[in-house]
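Lab channel / #folding
Pinned by the channel admin:
"Please post every new chain as: sequence first, then the structure tokens as a reply. Keep commentary short and put observations after the output so the thread stays searchable."

First post following the new format, from NK:
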Amino acid sequence: MKIKLWAPAAYWRMTREEIEKIAHGCGPGSGWAEKVVPDFLLWVSVRPACEIHDVMYHFGETEDDRREADETFRNNMLRIVRARTRSGILRSMRSAAAWLYFYAVSWGGGPAFWNDKNSEREYRTVEV
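Reply from TO:
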């Protein structure tokens, strides 16, 4: 089944190998949290939404970029859920799980977004 997802144009120009170097799916890529954050919402894979989100985090530079990545993540997960779920009850449960993933990354994804970005910035001591 084909589902129309949104991503920046640069994402669609990337090869599968380039995406796999950056993206690791819905979890953090390693550690205990990798087992707690599956690529599935009640048996429906949302990995493509997670990969787009990872790439957007990788290339993002501002807090607005981060917010756009998180909102794109949510919207893509909900598109997948709507397209892959016939049952209203199951759709509601999967949608709730998608919202949970969105809130988790919105509230806790800052360190992942800013990781290795501050090393490129210049720090100076200023009088306050």
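NK: Residues 21 and 55 are 10 Å apart (CA to CA).
TO: also worth noting, The mean pLDDT is 89.
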